[in-house]
Amino acid sequence: MLDERIVSLFKRHWRQTITYWSAFFSFGLCIALLGPTVLDLRCQTHSTLQQITWVFFSQQFFLLMGSGLGGFFRKTLQSSLVALFSCTLVISLVFAFIPLCNHVLLLSVAMAIAGLAMGVIDTIANLQLVKLYQKDSAIFLQVLHFFMGLGALVSPLVADPFLAEDVCVQGANWTANASAPADLLHLRSSLAGQGAEIGNLSQYPMHTEGVVVTRVSYAFWIMALINLPVPAAVLTLMYHERLLPCFGNSPRLIHRDSLASTSPTSESCHGNGAYSGFVYTYAVSPPLRMAHKKAGYLDSTFWASITVGRLAFIYLSYKYTAPRLLIFSLVRTFTSRTTPP
Question: Which of 45, 174, 283, 337 could form an S-S bond across to 180 if both were Cys, CB 3.0 to 4.6 Å?
Answer without folding.
Answer: 174
